[in-house]
Amino acid sequence: QENRVAEVRGRRVQGKEFSEGTTSIVTKVSILHALCHDVRAELHM
Protein backbone atom coordinates (compact mmCIF):
# COMPACT_ATOMS: atom_id res chain seq x y z
CA GLN A 1 0.00 0.00 0.00
CA GLU A 2 2.74 2.47 0.98
CA ASN A 3 4.73 1.64 -2.15
CA ARG A 4 1.72 2.51 -4.26
CA VAL A 5 1.33 5.90 -2.56
CA ALA A 6 5.03 6.64 -3.12
CA GLU A 7 4.68 5.62 -6.76
CA VAL A 8 1.72 7.94 -7.31
CA ARG A 9 3.55 10.79 -5.56
CA GLY A 10 6.62 10.20 -7.72
CA ARG A 11 4.52 10.33 -10.88
CA ARG A 12 2.82 13.51 -9.72
CA VAL A 13 6.19 15.20 -9.11
CA GLN A 14 7.48 14.05 -12.53
CA GLY A 15 4.31 15.35 -14.18
CA LYS A 16 4.68 18.70 -12.44
CA GLU A 17 8.33 19.03 -13.48
CA PHE A 18 7.42 17.98 -17.01
CA SER A 19 4.63 20.55 -17.31
CA GLU A 20 6.91 23.27 -15.91
CA GLY A 21 9.57 22.26 -18.42
CA THR A 22 7.18 22.42 -21.36
CA THR A 23 5.88 25.78 -20.15
CA SER A 24 9.40 27.23 -20.13
CA ILE A 25 10.04 25.77 -23.60
CA VAL A 26 6.84 27.35 -24.93
CA THR A 27 7.82 30.66 -23.31
CA LYS A 28 11.29 30.53 -24.89
CA VAL A 29 9.83 29.70 -28.31
CA SER A 30 7.30 32.53 -28.11
CA ILE A 31 10.05 34.97 -27.05
CA LEU A 32 12.26 33.81 -29.93
CA HIS A 33 9.31 34.12 -32.33
CA ALA A 34 8.63 37.67 -31.11
CA LEU A 35 12.30 38.59 -31.54
CA CYS A 36 12.36 37.19 -35.08
CA HIS A 37 9.19 39.12 -35.87
CA ASP A 38 10.79 42.36 -34.59
CA VAL A 39 13.92 41.78 -36.67
CA ARG A 40 11.85 41.11 -39.79
CA ALA A 41 9.78 44.25 -39.19
CA GLU A 42 12.98 46.32 -38.89
CA LEU A 43 14.43 44.79 -42.05
CA HIS A 44 11.28 45.64 -44.04
CA MET A 45 11.40 49.31 -42.94
What does it look like?
The protein is mainly alpha-helical. The chain has one domain (1-45). Helices cover 96% and strands 0% of the residues. It is built from 1 helix and no strands. The protein has one helix spanning 2-44. The mean pLDDT is 86.
What is the count of β-strands? 0
SS field, number of helical segments = 1
Radius of gyration: 20 Å
Question: What percentage of the residues does DSSP assign to strands (E)?
Answer: under 5%
Low-confidence stretches: none
- Give the CA-CA distance, first to last residue: 66 Å
Question: Portion of residues in helices?
Answer: over 70%
Succession of helices and strands: H
Oligomer kind: single chain
Please outline the helices and strands.
Layout lengths: L1 H43 L1
Short overview:
The chain has 45 residues and is mostly helical. It is 96% helix and 0% strand.
Which structural traits does this protein have?
about 45 residues, mainly alpha, 1 helix, rod-shaped
